[in-house]
Amino acid sequence: MHTSLSTLVEEANRYxxxxxxxxxxxxxxxxxxxxxxxxxxxGVTASQALLDAAVRAEADAIxxxxxxxxxxxxxxxxxxxxxRLKTLLNNDISLLAYHLPLDVHPEVGNNVxxxxxxxxxxxxxxxxxxxxxxxxLGSLKAAVTPSEFQRRIQQVLGREPLMIDxxxxxxxxxxxxxxxxxxxxxxxxxxxxxxxxxxxxxxxxHIARESGLSFFAAGHHATERYGVQALGDYLARHFDIEHxxxxxxxxx
Length: 252
Hints:
With about 250 residues, the chain is of the alpha/beta class. The protein has 10 helices and 13 strands.
């Protein structure tokens, strides 16, 4: 089976409610390819490695979380950007990218997908008064030690997270995938036992230690592999087309 590119993009935009979410990049169709889509390849970032894998997989469209044309990005089509766009255009492959809409979505979003995998109970947004709040607040069914939670993350994501151990059990938790270490102060204000994100920075370590909060940095790439897979699966079911997720490992 196949569907038109325009119909695919229209449904993805509607499902993710892209017109209601301000972002740092364009969401939706970033590069136009062939008019009919029968196979989607999804991945976290539209890197050259993913593009080359999608060409080998004979994809009609590529679906990613991290696409192109970011705010304040240099506009010149040279170097890495030229090679990436040339690959897409020469092979008539479309690129669809969804950033914040894919982080916040209540069904296929990165944060709810990570919660499902780690057994976290979603209770609400980390910043209830912020309409652009991305992080979530919730709990575990039963209290665990920081080391036990670290092992759970490692088993699920396939990598050992950086951990700051507050040496107290974890029941209440806040989390936000990707480069969201800056939300640690909101987590402290929420009174949780732990904060989980993708990346760490030097100040976040001190904040965790001085506030008695356990902190976990499990990898930007590792924590954001699941929303794009769920979105790709949704579109494949909706249009009866093929979907293949390709993971291009990234240690960050």
